[in-house]
Structures are given as structure tokens and as C-alpha cells.
Amino acid sequence: MSGTITKVSGPLVVAEGLADANVSDVVRVGSQRLIGEILNMTGDQASIQVYEETSGLGPGAAVETTGMPMSVELGPGMLDNIYDGIQRPLPEMRALAGDSITRGTDVPALNREKKWDFVPVAKPGDQVGPGDVLGTVQETSAILHKIMVPPGVSGQVVSVASGEHVVTDIIAVVKDAKGAEHQLPMYQRWPVRIARPYTKKYVPSRPMNSGQRIIDTMFPIAKGGTAAVPGPFGSGKTVVQHQLAKWSDVDIVIYIGCGERGNEMTDVLMEFPELKDPRNGEPLMKRTVLIANTSDMPVAAREASIYTGITIAEYFRDMGYDVAVLADSTSRWAEALREMSGRLEEMPGEEGYPAYLASRLSQFYERAGCVECLGADDRQGSVTAIGAVSPPGGDISEPVSQATMRIVKVFWALDSSLAYARHFPAINWLTSYSLYLDTLRPWYTEQFGETYMRNREKAMHILQEENELQEIVRLVGQDALSPADRLTMETAKMIREDFLQQNAFVDEDAYSSYAKQFRLLDVVLHYDVLCREALDKGADMEALFAISAREKIGRAKMADAGTFSADYDAIEAQMKKEVEEVVAGGENA
Amino acid sequence: MIKEYKTIREIASPLMVVEHVEGVTYDELGEIELPNGEIRRCKVLEVEGDKAVVQLFESAQGINLAQSKVRFLGHPQQLAVSEDMLGRVFNGMGNPIDGGPAILADAHMDINGLPMNPAARAYPAEFIQTGVSTIDGLNTLVRGQKLPIFSGSGLPHAALAAQIARQARVLGDNETFAVVFAAIGITFEESEYFIEDFRRTGAIDRTVVFSNLANDPAVERIATPRVALTAAEYLAFEKDMHVLVILTDITNYAEALREVSAAKKEVPGRRGYPGYLYTDLATLYERAGRRQGKKGSITMIPILTMPEDDKTHPIPDLTGYITEGQIILSRELHRKGIVPPVDVLPSLSRLKDKGIGEGKTREDHSGTMNQLFAAYSRGKDAKELMTILGEAALSEDDKLFAKFADEFEKRYVSQGNTTNRSIEETLNIGWELLSILPKRELKRIKPEYIEKYLPEK
To answer: Which of A40, A261, A579, B6 could form a disulfide with A47 if both were Cys (CB 3.0 to 4.6 A apart)?
Structure first.
């Protein structure tokens, strides 16, 4: 089925003679066979968004529909790889076309030549349904890839292969109730704009450990939850996203660089193979899939990249894995939507964004969640979606931030004034929130006792109080404060500097286990308690602030992950002794 | 066989509609021949059926609907490149204006370039010593980085950019470098300031100048940075040179873009700028960088003046989201006589962490950098408090921090436009300033470095 171009305007192409094509079909445009997708149909005229640069295209050129919606290939070979927004592998494109992204490059998403060792699980004669595992492939040293029966296929296994196979080989034949035989290759295709099915969705109840103190202790996110990281430029959005990609205790990470800097993707590509997962010692790249549609790459593919990423995430979720999707940045995705909408001459909503912006965003975030997967073995998987938002001028009253805030449950608000003071991560503790605190509390209590959450509340209370006291200090100076209030200010400063600040570029500090976080905050709060008692006994405030254990607390976050417990015991002991000395000194004087 | 059309139907500068065209494609370059024989350039923005909407690069004055002829050249705008471009001056479209001969082209390159495959990029990590403490010490520039200067009207950004161009070098390295300078809608005087500086230091022989001055056609400005970057890409990736690209002033570029967008009656985004401003700027800025297996590099310093010194204005805002940091100039420091008036707190270099430290600058660089930032920030807060409540309201520590902030501005930031400090000098001045503070406050520096570098009082 082919048609002819009548109009070209940037990434938008209008073609006629496509009466038989379906909306959302992938089409090939012009002699270079550029990849596009049908957005609208009027009569036999189709409006097409083209995923590649359209320069050199003009009326009269042919458009051919593939009859298939925009889909991804799902199978072994995705991990440890980097794709563009429409799942073309970038290293292979480079081998084929050189250092630049040239047009019409056609590379299959999954390597067709690489052989995988397929270990069958199902046996001939077994009854299988969607999601049942036919066999496994050890895809990388970190991840066992489960080859599942695709949705829509069920019946009796006729035959199962084993041994070395390429992804296109038929590894199983399933005969359905009507007697039709389904030849199943190792990979499946799935349209990106449709969520993959599951049996049942749960309310998330386990936290995702990120190793970041402000996140894990103050504003935790659940596995299967959703979060947004908004912030003006330079406030450290990307570093937060990278930290999450590195240290989160999930099985798979899908990192979508959507309209961001090319060098940031290069950074991930170079750094992740070197970094080791703190839990199993495997290189982080072995569990990572990168989707890179940098800001200079064609804008229409940016719109698709988010869907490509979340579809791959759902596929791994279906195997029973915990997956994190990190999208940096959803604002660029929304801008791509706006640009196409403008070219389609649609009636704009707020700030030129299309009226369907909010519904598209919620469709994306709603694909996250904790589910019971398809298949007989009741495995559970989760997709956690974390999106960066880049509000113009850092002002979150704009449409993308507002639409995102209505959907997500966790909000890590980055603050430029913290970033200027080099307080990183620059997540503002007063404006951020997590709606998972209540559902996660039982988990924390079970693991660490009730003190964990109590400490958190106490620390938050002190920070809140500091904020009010600061108002007074700004008006009348800190001498007007009572010693108890001065202590509150001092403890708040310690919580900020000695606990919340975390240096992503120092090995000892980049990742903090729950136990270390718990103890560190406990030490700081213990200091507060000791000093408060001492003040009641009439101890000198300045002397309490000057005890030498304070410097040790200041460096406590650098303690080694193996020995921190003993170190913190020593600090507590010293602190106690020195506070007692100050009290005693006051009594003697 | 190139067809000529005498079917111009409509002109609303800078747009023109040509009818009954055949085989015209999107983004194609065209030529308009006026009745008096003069030739002007245009490019295709949209084709629908037999109707083409084209954008003029020059003024529409004198174009006659009946008599003017239009030819479409079958390819997008190209630049003839060769090594002979060094030392030459071109207009904003890439034609020589220094009276010299035309360039004997080694190649013709599409000025729009192609997006670089992220898998082909090499991560910038080589420290560039600019000799400016606020940059080297706190917002380190590395090879292949794009680091804009955010300035305001009347601030001395030209002096700083010229100082960087003059002093920048990579330690222990004698590779060939080149400067590509694009004047985008700036005045003759400002452009001449740069050229004179290049001439004085002898750098002019290694410089390519593209000049679109304030009185040149505004629409041509859309091509100027692309032409300049095409030349830079040729020199860097075909001729193995390390190229420093200075683009000034991006604000003028964005305004030209807005002009064309408004003429096309597009739905405007913030402040009337087109919704695709981010994408458009990204296609310029992202052309900086390094490629695996190539010796050369493109380091970019775009300069922009923030309207009303407002960092949240769309031009600086979107630029900041694309570039790898920013150097911000402050009017307050400028008034105080601090030269260069770099406001270090909101300034940032995102790539610094890979370019500093042992073997690159010095082991203590990272720690002292963070400490200086934190201390200056606290010192400024203390000073603010002092202006409201008087010095007596400050704690002893805060008084020291306030003193530190003053000394920091005087000794570290204000170095003048001719001082070229080595990185050791910069770091040592940093340590001298830190010695003002109580030692226990130096929490961000490893104790062994404090032991080693902190001067005795």
C-alpha cells in the first residue's frame, strides 16, 4: 500500500492515497525510506510524523505503510545496549554509518547473528498460557532472561528447542485449542503505545533502596511507585537520576535520555561498565538499557522514546523483575508533543501545549506499578517510574510540572539556592513530599524497629522549626533566641550538613545503606538529646557546640561501609563523655 | 537542469510564496535573481502541492513579483570548507568579505550538520587552563565542553571571552588549535574588539571570523552560527585541530528566529519565542564535543545577554538546560569594580569533575572547590544579615565567614583581564583564603590535604 507526499513541513509530512492505512501505522517515507508514524487520517490523506530529518523531501515522493503500529522487539540482547528513541542500536548504527546519525539507517533492534544458549523449562505436552516461561537465556552475568509465551497465545507445547540459537529461531511450537500451531521465536514484538497485560495490580509496599539519605530516609519511594524530580537547570537533576540508576536495588534499569545532552549519555556509557552493583558485584551496565534521544536528534523520535523505554521495562517486569525507568527529561518529551501539535495546527491549550498533555502524561506514569505477572507461577514484578521535569525558569506553575504533580506520589523538589550553596543533592526538605510514608512504615518498622520512622519525624520537625526560627534570626539576630532554640538551629544545621548532604563523586559517600543512614541520623539526634539535657543542667551552650566529637560527626558520613557501626559507637561514646565534661565543668565553675 | 520560476505570488518579508513549482524539496536552498541582476538567497520552509514557502536570508527590498526569478538548487545550504579559511573573514552566510579570493573548496558541507551519535562521543575530560581563577578553580572548562557566558547589557563579557581565547591552553600540550569566531548581530565596535585582540596576540592567523553585524540582515543570523560550526567541525574532525568556537550574541540569534516564526504565524511559546527554541538551540550547542578516534575537539563559548539580567528569560533558561554549565556575570560585582565580575555561586561547570584532581590539576582541587563555594555562600548570607542587624548580631564564626567573602571577591575573583594565573596559583590563593576560617569548618576537604596544603597562620 503506498501513497504520495503532498506537503512537507519540518517533521510533519502529509500524504494522499493511503486510504487503507491505519492510524498509528509505521510508514516508510521517500526514497531514503525514512521511518514515520501516522497521526491523523482525513479521507485518504494521512498526517505523518517522521522520526528522521526531512530535509530533501518534497511532494511526489512515495510513502509506504508497513501495516504495523510502532513496535519494539523484545528478547535477549537489550541489556548492556544503547538505543535511539525508536529502538535502533546506536553502536551498530555507528559501525554502519559513521559518527553521525544519518538518515534511513535500518538496523534491527536485536542482533540477528548473536547466538544465545537457550535452556528449556517447558516440556512437550505441557499446557501453557500467556506469560508462562518456555525457557531461559543467561543474557548477562547479572540477568537471567526468561523467554515467555507472548500474550494471546495458549495451548499445548508441541516441541521445545534447546542449545545455541539466534533470536529469530523458533524455540517452541504451541498448538492451541483450535488446532492451530504457533511458531514462537525467541523474541516478541509489542506496540509501544499499548501497555503490556498482567494478572493483577497491587498497592506498592516495599521501598526502593536508592542509597541516597534524603530519599531513603526522608522521602522514600516504593517499588512500583512514581516520582518526579523537578528543578531549574544546574540544580542537579541529572546527578540525582544517575545516582538512582546506579544504586537503586532493582534488577533492571531503563535510562531514557530524552532530549538531553549527548555527553550525559556518553558519561553513562563510559561509567556504568566500570561501576559495580553494591549488592552482587556485577558491572551496573549488565542490568541497564539506555535509550538516547539527545536534544540534537530528530524531535519526533523523542516523543516515541518514552514509550519505547516503558515498554521494554514492562517486558522485564513480566519476567518477575523489579525495574526502574528513569526519564530525563519529561519536559523535553512534552515539548516534542507541543511541536507536533503545532504543526498539525491543533488548538493549543496552556502555553501552547496540546490539550491532551495531562492525559498523555498520566498514561505514561500509570504504566508503572507492582503487578502479579501473567503466567502460572504467580511471579511478581514492578516498574518504578521516575521522571525529571525541567520547568522553564524553575517555576513549577507551568503545565508540565503541574500535570506531573497531579499524578506522581513522590516529589523531590530541587532547589537552586541549595545548589548554589553546593548543598547536594539539592532536594528541598520543606517542599518535597512522599505519599508512600504510610504504606512503607510497616516495612521500616519490621526491619529496623520503630525508631527509624520516629527519627525521621523528629528530624523533619527540627528542620521545620529551623525554618521558623530563621525568620526570627533574620529580623532580630540569633542572640534573641533561647539556648534551646539555638540548639535546635545547631541540630538542624547538622542534619542538613552532616546527614542530608551527600557527595555523589566520593566513593565512601555515594551509596549509604539503610543501616548506615539509620545510625548516622541517630548519632546526630542523640547529640541533640544529650545537649538538651546538659542545657537543662545549666551547661554552657558554646562549649557544647565546640566539643571535638562534633568534627567527627561532620566526617561520619565518610565512614567505611564495613566498619561504620564501630566508628559510630566510638563517636557516640566520645560525644557522651565530652558533654558530661562540659556539664561537670559548668558545675565546678 | 535547474528550472527558473517567475511565479512569486506573495512576499511578506522574510517569507515568500512561489507557485507552480515542481520537484522542490524541504530545506532546499534557492536563489532569487532581481531584475537588476542581483542575487539573493532563500531556503524552503514548507512545500505543499505545487506551492513552496521560502524564507529570505536578506531583505526583500527590490524584489519584484513579476520580474524576479527564483531557482532552486537541489541541496540545502552548504559551506565550502578548506584549511585556507584560517585567517580569513567571511560574512554571516560564509562568503569572504576581506577582499581576498574565494575559498578553493576541499569539500562542501551541509551547514545543518548531522546529530552526533551518542555512542561515538568521547567524554570531555582534558583540563583547559584559562588562567582565570573563577573558571579554572571553581567552574573548570574541559576540552569539548560547551560553556556559555550569561551576561547583561553593559557587562564586560567581551573582555572575559577574549581573555579566555587568549590564555586558554591544555597543560603539557602543543597541539594545533584554531579559533572560530561568529559575530551574530553585534556592533562593529564589539566585533572589532575581538578581532583587534586576535590581531594583537597573533592568533588572527589561526582564526576564522564569520561576521553578521547589527546592520546586516537579521534573518541571515539564523545561518551564521551554523556556518561557523560547520567550519569548526571541518577543522576539528577532518583536520585534527582543537577548535574554540565563540558565538556572540545568541540573544540576537534567538530574536531572528522569533522574527521568522512570527512571520510564519506559528503558535508562540514563552515570550513569543517559537516552541521549538530548545530544539533549535540544541542543534547548535550539541555540535560541540569530542569524537572517539578523532584527535580534534570543539569547545564552545556562546555568549548571551540576558534581557533585564533575568536568568529565567527563555534564552538563558533553555541555553542552561542544554549547555554543560554557565558562567554568570554579575552587575553588582561589576559595580564594585571586581574584574572579571563572575558570580561564582550560580555559575557552574558540569564537566569539571572528570577534568580535575590528581594527574589533571591537583589532588586537593575537588575538596577545596566545594569548600570555597560553601564558605562563600555562607559568607554572603552572613554579610546580608550584617547589613540588617549590624555586625554585633553575628557569631564569631559568621564574622570570619563575612571577612572571607570580602577577601574572596577581592583576591580570588578580581584578577583583572591581563593576569594569567596557573592552576597552582589559583589553588594556593584558595588555600590562603580558607586559612581565614576555623579549621573545624573545613569539613569538605580530606584531613590529609588540610595537613599538606593549609598555610600556617
So the answer is: A40
